[in-house]
Amino acid sequence: QVQLVESGGGLVQAGASLRLSCAASGRAFSRYTMGWFRQAPGKERERVGAISWSSGNLYYADAVKGRFTISRDNAQRTVSLQMDRLKPEDTVVYYCNAKFLRYDYWGQGTQVTVSS
Question: If you average pLDDT over residues 66-76, what whole number do you get?
């Protein structure tokens, strides 16, 4: 069992930066592929970024490439999403995800609002 708690969301102006953090508790954090997803009302949840257990493999959605950076610290059991040059269309709830084999865990989400 893994519990995930996100933090760092908030209200910013377009062009600003935010850093989301996800703290994990539980066992074997380093085995999990960690990801950040986001979901707008009435839309499907979409994957924004993902990072493998060794940080050797990274994924970014086209909409955030070059603006967002995902990183993890296995010793601290945290994963972060640095979001730069934010746009109003980045306004959604962001969720942290931990996945390993059949195990799939989600945080409660954190709201990011970008004003124009």
Answer: 96
